Amino acid sequence: MSIIKKNDNLFPAIPSFFNDVLSRDLWNWGLNNNSSTNTTIPAVNIRENKDSFIVEMVAPGMKKDDFKVELDDNMLTISSEKNMQDEIKDGENYTRQEFSYQSFQRTFQLPKNVVDADKINAKYENGLLQLTIPKREEAKQKPRRMINIS
User: With pLDDT > 90 as the criterion, what percentage of the chain qualifies?
Assistant: First the structure.
């Protein structure tokens, strides 16, 4: 015996359309960090001050060795691949094992001729990956100065 959903409506497609649309998170704009595979992409804040850009990525539960940060020309890529799998010991059998695999990749285009790529610094502590990307001296905004008229 199987269970079949019965729809006695005059226009059966309309309720199922609304149920389908309303069951999705289309109206919840706060979920914009979900990928098409329903995995979470870490949220990023990017700040700028007169000396540098600061990229902050929230990634709790990870270790600094889980990250790979690459700079190719002016493209900054932050990625991670984490496979959590327990080692099986002699004499043990799995009755159930659910693998855990996480990966993400975020790429950002840095402004050309503005950043000093050789001085980029990255640190990870307390679930926060922070990259400091210094600006070149010639790209830093100069303070306002008065020009004397002769």
Answer: 32
| CA–CA dist 67, 54 (Å, integer) | 17
Going by C-alpha positions, the residue among 47, 46, 76, 44 that lies closest to residue 58 is 44
- What's the predicted TM-score (pTM) here? 0.62
Burial of 141 (0-12, 13-18, 19+ CB in 10 A): exposed
Pick 63 or 24 by higher pLDDT.
63
What average pLDDT does this structure show over 75-104?
77
Buried b (16+ CB within 10 A) or exposed e, 58-93: ebeebeeeebebeeeeeebebebebeeeeeeeeeee
Helices (H), 53-137: none
* CA angle, 114 then 119 then 122, to 5°: 110
Domain 39-84+98-139 classification at class level: mainly beta
